[in-house]
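Lab notebook, entry 587. We have the chain sequence and a SMILES string for pyridoxal-5'-phosphate, and the next step in the workflow is to get a structural model of the bound complex before anyone spends time on docking refinements. Request logged below.

Task: model protein plus pyridoxal-5'-phosphate, output structure tokens.
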Amino acid sequence: MFNRRLRGQVLQWDALRHTDIQKKGNEGLCGRGASPIISHHYASPAATQNRRSFREIYRISLRLLPLLSPSDMLLIDLIESVYHSSYAAQWRFLIVENRTVPPKTVMEYPLNAPTVYPMKRYEQFADEIATLIREGVLGPGERIPSVRQASRHHGISPSTVFQAYYLLENRGLITARARSGYFVREHARRLLGEPRVTLQPNDPAEVEVSELVFSVLDSLQDDQTVPFGSAFPSPELFPLSRLATSMTRGLRELSPQQVVADMTTGHTDLCRQIALRYMLGGIQLPMEELVITNGAMEALNLALQCVTQPGDLVAVESPAFYASLQVLERLKLRAVEIPVHPREGVDLEVLAERLEALPIKACWFMSHLQNPLGASMSKERKQALYQLLKQHQVPMLEDDVYAELYFGSTPPTPVKAFDDEGLIIHCSSFSKCLAPGYRVGWVAGGRYAEAISRLKLMTTISPSVPAQAAIADYLQHGGYDRHLRKLRHALEAQQGSMLAAADRYFPAQTRITRPAGGYFLWVEFPEKIDSLRLFNMALDHGVSLAPGPIFSATQQFRHCVRLSYGHPWTQSSERGMETLGRLLALF
Ligand SMILES: Cc1ncc(COP(=O)(O)O)c(C=O)c1O
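Result returned:
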């Protein structure tokens, strides 16, 4: 069964037991109409004594609510108490269908759950204000509610408001003025317009970008350059020493049998942790669908090989992540370029027309934080995209490596969540958000999962089992969500600094994106700017960037560049932007 879409509401929250459910069934418990029940049930008396664990059950239950359909019951069974004083607990989640008593298990996760660090109230409040700023409700220079007003209005203590404002100051979103209060930072100004991304219409094209891409990538190796061209965030933003601890512990706990067995199936705990994260995001993923790979790149490569033959047509975004174009080139596939709107994502009208007119065999899209534009499709557009693919029975590789890097507090829903036929091949990894260099990624392969798994066994066999064990241990004990929140806040502050610098140094006609996450800006300069020339000139001055043509199968976007704000903002970053501004004035 592939991802059923699930929804529901709590009717009852009490300490029901298995026996109650079995005796009375859902109808007996909540009347006709079969609504979901959440029950919590403690196997260990210690757990009941721990109020923290109780709060955790409640919080997790609320997060699980979107998973429920009206005909589902959710039984959350705490099988072991909280250990030490941390929030870590062992959970077993069961989703049972109400029609079958005793309940038929649709899915069971006997797992060591990740340590959960719930968002504090001040963090939630800071996120609410940040969203108002990002959406322009609170404009640049505008005063935000005073501590007293906010405290009264939101029913939170003044010290909680202070903590939230302090956090927002650190994130570079607001500033304090002596005796006047807090104001939205000026640099959130919307002086520079949004890129228009115009695409010259073209026929399906053979792809030849590798030479250009390699020449650009080679020149990015120098660590003395200001890394605006880099594809990865700064290693300083990752919990590398905590990961090293997890590596040691993960290795110690690996049994000799596992070292070999996990090569074919993927490290069991890691698979469970990944499946749990899908589940919390509203996707019920059968474990057999998951294939652990050497980063997302291998997942995408294998998937594309499984659904195409040389010479086939593949719909790609324009602009697109350059490595996707290199994969098409290597597999001798032809690209059908579909324009991408800088905020709304892939153009569905053009896609519909191309699917009608051409025998497209697969699509390779990013529905969220698209590289390089940062576009994120709305839920409605994702659903419409899925319906289009379903109508034409065309599989889609959903490249979702930036899934965790959204700003704000609402995680995005991937197109995969709408998939009821196994058409969406969802690929992601830990490279951008946790462990660059560990090369651990995965694919939820839908109806192609088995073919992908076999192809992996015929090529690389497996990613390193110790690396998988390390990440599994980190997800369970390392505080992944807490790390992600810190990372997102850092990236958001860095984005603000880069946008402010672009405002200061770039020509007034420059257009620039403001993505709600990730770490790239797409910059469209006036037509006369040649980004390949600018790239060489900037390198001579110690600044790297990614020129527009590497993001196109037909080498368009000559006057555009992608800039990374993935590194902490320093004086050298500021000077780098100033240098680019000076070089632009020479054209
Ligand atoms: C859009 C996109 N997809 C896939 C990848 C590859 O991810 P990984 O490093 O996990 O192979 C990258 C890395 O740059 C990327 O930007």
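Notes for the group: Residues 13-112 form one domain. Worth checking against the assay data. The chain is about 40% helix and 15% strand.
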